[in-house]
Amino acid sequence: MLNTVLNVKPVFLRRFCSYKSISNVLKASQIGEEISIQGWVKSVRKQKNVTFCDINDGSTVKHLQVVLQDKSNIKITVGSSVQAFGTVCKSPKGVNEIEAKNITVIGECDIEKGYPFAPRKQYAPEYIREYLHLRPKTKKFSSVLRVRHGATLAFHNYLDRNGYVCVQTPILTSNDCEGAGEVFKVVPDNNNLLKSMAKENVNIEDAYFDKKSFLTVSGQLHLETAAHALKQVYCFGPAFRAENSQSRHHLSEFYMLELEKAFLTSLDNLLEITEDLIKGVTKHLLDRYTDDIYVCTENKHNFSWVDKKFKVLTYFEAADIVTNKLSKPLKYKGAFSKEHELALTEYFENIPVFVINWPKLEKPFYMKEIEDSNVAAFDLLVPQIGELVGGSLREDNYEKLQSRLPPNHYLDWYLDLRKFGNVPTGGFGLGFERYIQFILGMHNIKDSIPFPRWPHNCDF
Amino acid sequence: MLNTVLNVKPVFLRRFCSYKSISNVLKASQIGEEISIQGWVKSVRKQKNVTFCDINDGSTVKHLQVVLQDKSNIKITVGSSVQAFGTVCKSPKGVNEIEAKNITVIGECDIEKGYPFAPRKQYAPEYIREYLHLRPKTKKFSSVLRVRHGATLAFHNYLDRNGYVCVQTPILTSNDCEGAGEVFKVVPDNNNLLKSMAKENVNIEDAYFDKKSFLTVSGQLHLETAAHALKQVYCFGPAFRAENSQSRHHLSEFYMLELEKAFLTSLDNLLEITEDLIKGVTKHLLDRYTDDIYVCTENKHNFSWVDKKFKVLTYFEAADIVTNKLSKPLKYKGAFSKEHELALTEYFENIPVFVINWPKLEKPFYMKEIEDSNVAAFDLLVPQIGELVGGSLREDNYEKLQSRLPPNHYLDWYLDLRKFGNVPTGGFGLGFERYIQFILGMHNIKDSIPFPRWPHNCDF
């Protein structure tokens, strides 16, 4: 008897103090176990004396059904936050559910007070995008967030396992390395501060850093400084472009995974690294985020490419295919448009395509020159998206690099890397949102990032 | 005979095509194995007909000794990049080394051509900081980079294991959430672009986003939108302050780990999460990055705190100790200065100290009010550094939050979170560079980040 009484207290405490995640209840809870859960109501059905609630807590895309024998006529609306306590049992379909002893509403949710998502309604992504702060509450976008998380971790862990070191390259930089005038400048929003820091011969606007400073467009040049000591390095962070593009493929703020490897002399080797990374990360996601990918792609997506060798063709071969076989002539300076890129992957039956050995004039100054005024560069084109990765061997010849530097550069430090313990290096940049778009089959890049920024849009 | 000839080719190929990492050679290579390695020369000693080179390739802080029976008088200087081929053998000290058949210099390195680091010389951090692009080549800083990498991965993986989802909050924001005028504004560096995007009633400078936009000072408010759907979330990325501080504790660009947890009602619970995270990550680093930590701390560092319970005291108790026991009266508005913070951790024998329940006026508007005009907030103070983490429960009462919002705010979206499926939340922000400083015993925060940015300094 004493034993029984002593046993009651801890069980009682556990009931109200410790909550289980819904993914855990669905996967691992035992029938008959008494548990508490917390989450948001995703749907409610009322029958006579029984209320069925689907609850989600973000730990999985799946909902947990909570069944309450309800005589009190408790008001539960979709979107409310609740906690429930009850016993795990099996539903007729064989899924764990909760036979609730009680459900408590913590925060109400009311369509009439302006909640923009009505139950059992489908909304267009453009509509949902107007409510970025509530968007994580929608089913598909919560899956996007979990897959983004999974992809972030998978890239880091793949590279760690393969001996790469993550080096956070700077967001603020005095280089405008691409020189295309597509950079944001950065200035303290405080004129008194600027005045107090003023110096002769420095524009007052530039007084904070003594020089004009910008948001990074790429971490590559900075990353090379670390590759010249740690051999294998990468960075994963935000980059910025001040373009006026409203396309479904562009953002003003986006994430890039950039990798740089020293003692690298072969473009083939770089293609292998790229292909293996993308396949490795994707396989991991298909395995661990099956449900989320299923929801986002509506199970219509074809992942057969993860087991196939990517195609490799030269720029010359690719140009020949788009011009002659697909009758889409190249325009300005021989560049590929998005239309060309998509046509090429379609031509190869939706297998990703490496296009290698580009004309020098198409590519930035730091790419390694090879025969015929070409550079040892590649673009990786993927179905529906076009360019996902761009990379190259870097020019490691001091004089050649010097002769190709943009005018008025501040890149003597970059040249120095070719002067002191120089090694051949190569690397690439992968557009993270494009990767998310690619594997989730998303039409618009703005739906692949929590707070998209694009021209005329920087809400919140 | 045929067999032998056939065998030669693959062995020959392997010799020159496949290189081993030095960490691998030191740990796992077998005596007698023939291998190739690549790296940079860290020291050279010449005796009559033998050259001893210490080579490092960034895979470990340890060097690999390569011994060359050298009749050719090959010129090898410190800092050069080389590759070597030879046989693994044991040194007299029992460490793996290479008896080299050859060493090839790939890129020379010459003090006389301006290489700033002479062999066998120690330099002050301030001197090394003048050469940020070559700094990764120095022993200590390459260790810092590996430990930063390790800490980045460890934070991500700890939080993943504990069910937190990484949500990349925006760098560009239209909120100036702290309202302290310490923000950088962001403007396209292209007047033609701005003109082409101009709208009536919008300042020409703000034409790109239709409103003033800034660099983030914290991802917290944005992170809360995700916590209200995914329950447990975090972000890890750059944040910015436009202050004119030359102190050893501040950067204009720094990294923060921010965490937010929904259904959180107890500050104690938040302290537990914080303490467990910091101890968990630190133990992992002590285990995996032993050599790097040893080099950075010169083995003088005391990590006994990882096995001790952190102290907890209220702001009132802490203020009493610094004022009365340590005779360091508080100044302006009762805030703690760095001096007070350091004195407190010293008083508690270098155990980290949580200071909880702060006066409301000391803290931002979003912190949850409790009794006596206090807020449920904490600062975690650590030895030598002071504040490492700041956190709180968030005000979840709609009316109270509304009444405390800064004037002219654009935070209706933040209020909305308290309107639709509201839940109590809490979280914290941890200064990543301060954490690195803390565990590596580094005096100046500028030596804990690859490209430090501070007033008058934004080189590269």
Keywords:
ligase (chains A, B); alpha+beta; disordered N terminus; 16 strands; Asp/Asn-tRNA-synth_IIb (chains A, B); OB fold (Dihydrolipoamide Acetyltransferase, E2P); homodimer; 2 domains; 8-stranded mixed β-sheet; BirA Bifunctional Protein, domain 2; 460 residues; 5-stranded mixed barrel; 13 helices; 30% helix
Secondary structure elements and pairings:
Two copies of one chain form a homodimer.
Chain A: H1 2-17, H2 22-28, E1 34-47, E2 50-56, E3 64-69, E4 81-90, E5 96-107, H3 125-128, H4 139-161, E6 165-166, E7 172-173, E8 184-188, H5 191-196, E9 214-215, H6 220-230, E10 232-240, E11 253-262, H7 267-288, H8 290-297, E12 311-314, H9 315-325, H10 338-347, E13 353-359, E14 374-382, E15 386-393, H11 398-404, H12 412-416, E16 425-431, H13 432-440
Parallel strand pairs in A: 3-5, 6-10, 12-13
Antiparallel strand pairs in A: 1-2, 1-4, 2-3, 4-5, 7-9, 10-11, 11-16, 13-14, 14-15, 15-16
